[in-house]
């Protein structure tokens, strides 16, 4: 049943009149038994699909023991998850959160605190990029800089300088005595699935080293296997000082993390930052279960294999339907279809074929399937996309015919 005007939910979401009762792998099933192929994955969250048996077992087992005790005490599962993250990344230290926005807030505070601890409290400004999305808190909407998210919420939080995407001259020009860090998504998700070229990420690292800045990566959407590497920046062979993570790391359970080097985090001493729920035993059990699967031998290679197959197949559809799809872009299983028509129309047409996708900036449709998809799921998605394109072309032809008759 869809929401009505009498719904007690705050109407901040224009929800689709569709609900699901259960899920199996990459499939979602409605109460009526209709099956949808889920290539939205809760917006890149359900990294291992729905009802993954290893995640379900981990949650059940932990749920029967301990849910929450707060960070007043040691949480062994959290120590274990942090160690696994630091062992497999650039980082030395981890702060657990409940969401990507909270992970970004920690990253922003950490960058400012670092310079303050070094005797330069005036260095608090962070350079960000047009088209970025970093969350919905007051600080993170200021970091993203998009007017549609800022409007009506009072003065923009001070300390963020936006520059055009990929413009290194503009970045250099924006660096001043108050600059603390550069913040970038290695692949812009909400901004239209725009990967930052490896040489650009390396250039940002060099720029930060040259000017004594911290480099912050937002891998909330691109991380934890989504691009075929554990983290997207690893493809470029470059490391940040601080990184925000969420979405896929919990496989559907609310979980985020801020990773950092010891140097970058040295100002974050006892009492300067905190969280009530972050790092709770339930989240830690699920996070460890996710890493059991993602870090298993061959898993990331499987993601890259499925990515190659899916992108090649999508390019073939685009060639056959150039009036609908302009191009295919992205990394791993974070894929964007640049639409020739309104991207919302394509999302709707795909949903009519029981294939779920999600829109993005730059008139792009995102395909974010669970990382566990196989060849049969790719074939099914391509078949549904093909049918959607044909239906859209027929609609356009009918409109054109009707218009000519009216003349």
Could you name the key traits of this structure?
about 400 residues, alpha/beta, Aspartate Aminotransferase, domain 2, 7-stranded mixed beta sheet, 4-stranded mixed beta sheet, 12 helices, about 40% helix, globular
Describe the structure.
The protein is α/β, with parallel strands linked by helices. Among the domains are: 55-294, Type I PLP-dependent aspartate aminotransferase-like (Major domain) (Aspartate Aminotransferase, domain 2); 299-337, no CATH class. The chain is built from twelve helices and 17 strands. The strands form four sheets. A seven-stranded mixed beta sheet has the order 4-12-11-10-7-5-6, with helices on both faces. Strands 1-2-3-15 form a four-stranded mixed beta sheet. β1 and β2 form a beta hairpin. It is globular.
Overall 3D geometry? globular
- Specify the oligomeric state: single chain
**What is the H level of CATH, i.e. the homologous superfamily of the domain at 55-294?**
Type I PLP-dependent aspartate aminotransferase-like (Major domain)
Number of discrete helical segments: 12
Summarize model confidence as the mean pLDDT.
95
Distance N to C terminus: 42 Å
Helicity, in percent? Answer: 25-40%
Largest sheet: spatial strand order: 4-12-11-10-7-5-6
Which residues form runs of ≥5 with pLDDT under 50?
A: none
Q: What's the order of the H and E elements?
A: EEEHHHEHEHHEHEEEHEEEHHEEHEEEH
């Amino acid at each position: 049943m869809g929401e009505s005007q009498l719904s007690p939910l705050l109407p901040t979401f224009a929800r689709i009149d569709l609900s699901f009762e259960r899920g199996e792998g990459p499939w979602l099933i409605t109460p009526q038994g209709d099956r949808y192929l889920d290539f939205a994955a809760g917006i890149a969250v359900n990294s291992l699909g729905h009802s993954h048996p290893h995640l379900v077992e981990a949650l059940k087992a932990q749920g029967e023991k301990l849910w929450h005790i707060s960070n007043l005490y040691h949480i062994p599962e959290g120590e274990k998850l942090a160690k696994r993250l630091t062992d497999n990344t650039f980082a030395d230290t981890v702060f657990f959160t409940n969401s990507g926005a909270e992970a970004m807030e920690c990253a922003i505070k950490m960058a400012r605190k670092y310079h303050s601890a070094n005797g330069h409290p005036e260095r608090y400004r962070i350079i960000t990029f047009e088209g970025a999305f970093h969350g919905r808190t007051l600080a993170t909407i200021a970091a993203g800089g998009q007017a549609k998210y800022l409007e009506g919420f009072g003065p923009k939080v001070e300390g963020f300088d936006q520059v055009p995407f990929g413009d290194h001259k503009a970045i250099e020009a924006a660096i001043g005595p108050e600059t603390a860090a550069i913040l970038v998504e290695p692949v812009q998700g909400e901004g239209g699935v725009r990967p930052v070229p490896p040489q650009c990420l390396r250039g940002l690292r060099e720029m930060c080293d040259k000017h004594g800045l911290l480099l912050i990566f937002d891998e909330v959407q691109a991380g934890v296997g989504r691009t075929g590497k554990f983290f997207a920046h690893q493809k470029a062979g470059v490391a940040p000082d601080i990184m925000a993570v969420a979405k896929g790391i919990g496989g559907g359970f609310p979980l985020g993390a801020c990773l950092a080097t010891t140097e970058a985090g040295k100002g974050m001493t006892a009492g300067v930052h905190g969280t009530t729920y972050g790092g709770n035993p339930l989240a830690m059990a699920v996070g460890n279960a996710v890493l059991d699967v993602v870090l298993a031998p061959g898993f990331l290679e499987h993601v890259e294999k499925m990515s190659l197959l899916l992108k090649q197949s999508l390019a073939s559809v685009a060639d056959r339907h150039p009036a609908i799809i302009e191009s295919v872009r992205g990394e791993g299983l974070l894929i964007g279809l640049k639409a020739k028509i309104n991207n919302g129309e394509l999302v709707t047409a795909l949903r009519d074929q029981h294939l779920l996708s999600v829109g993005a900036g730059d008139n792009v449709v995102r395909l974010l399937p669970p990382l566990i998809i196989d060849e049969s799921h790719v074939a099914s998605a391509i078949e549904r996309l093909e049918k959607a394109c044909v239906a859209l072309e027929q609609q356009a032809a009918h409109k054109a015919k009707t218009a000519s008759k009216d003349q």
